[in-house]
Amino acid sequence: MRKKALIITYYWPPAGGPGVQRWLKFVKYLPDFNIEPVVYIPENPNYPIVDAHLNTEVSSNLIILKQPIKEPYKLAGLFSKKTSKTISKGIISEKKTQSFVEKVMLYIRGNYFIPDARKAWVKPSVAFLLEYISKENIEMIITTGPPHSLHLIGLQLKEQLGVKWIADFRDPWTTIGYHKELMLTEASKAKHKALEKQVLNTANQIIVTSFTTKKEFQQLTNKPIEVITNGYDYESVAPFEMDSKFTLAHIGSLLSKRNPEILWQVLRDLIAENKSFSKDFQLDFIGFISESILESIKNYNLSDYINKIGYVSHKEAIVFQKKSQVLLLIEIDSEDTKCIIPGKLFEYMVSNRPIIAIGPNDSDVEKIIKETNTGHYFNYQNYDSLKTVILEHYNSYQKNTLQVHPIGLQKYSRKSLTETLSKLL
């Protein structure tokens, strides 16, 4: 007889973006390991990105439970729709460019909605799930955050029913980059830390997506912590042709603080020094890109080389990953971002295209790229080596020999990762 596992998540199709992929894929493969997933989601969520195509990946046999949620971002949208939408995506302007409305919204979000704007869903969810878990003999529950308020649902269910509880952290809690931007009072900071510690010390098992986050959490709890990264799935795509241009493509959001000026400098210089490069080169942006980065690119005289495509469905993004000549992965140069492993990294790794990643020294991304031989990693000071690698890739592109030779990718497949999860369950 299959074990039943209740998964409590905010992001679920038709939500788009990276947050939905992790548990959509776990749920897809859990039945292969004798576990029956039951998914609990909000009935009327306010998703900042929608990808309706992902609905096709949800099994018709899956039990999905829904309860209404009160979304403060909808109310905030009455005052400023644009600001409300960007904050809900985790996009926060630099302090010097913030409007008065944005500052007020950030202060309210940080100090009146702890741990986050979905806190109002905790109480009704606990009331509904207490009855359901008892009635259906659910043996284990999994909460996944952000939003970290979902871990408070797990906390209360664990305290009241004693059910086995696994808390999955797709991102850190109090050390995530935008946390510092929320204008938190000292009391609010203390409350966040107290809730984080309570969750970490009450759950039976912690799952994290990065090795750095595991080390961080080990300072706060003695509970077992397992690293289960995000991964890739086998995606069928329609026939496509490789880009004729020498395309460097960034797929996903490129926010203002992820501004690799060293890259723009290298590209500007290569264009000036190499006539054939200037004719062949193109910089593709598939997804949101901040105005400040576009301005920075303009300052390096690269505006004429930009192909700004905007947001596309996940299925379309996979095609761009496979047909682009080189894939860009950019992270903020900060201690706080060493633990961030974007989900798209793993899809990049199986695209058979070389990766150029730029970020902080000693990051988890650097470790994975080197381990799998899927690209090159640079910090924000590696001008010479970055320029050399881009030129090498360009020379290979001219000879039609640009490719990668990855190793050890199988352990990052969604099915292999689900097998690891099933052993915890």
From TrEMBL:
SUPFAM superfamilies: UDP-Glycosyltransferase/glycogen phosphorylase (SSF53756). One of its GO terms (biological process) is lipopolysaccharide biosynthetic process. CDD domains: GT4_WbuB-like. Coiled coil: none annotated. Keywords: Transferase. Residues 110-235 form the Glycosyltransferase subfamily 4-like N-terminal domain. One of its GO terms (molecular function) is glycosyltransferase activity. It holds the Pfam family Glyco_transf_4. The keyword Transferase applies. The keyword Transferase applies. This is Glycosyl transferase family 4. It comes from Mariniflexile fucanivorans.
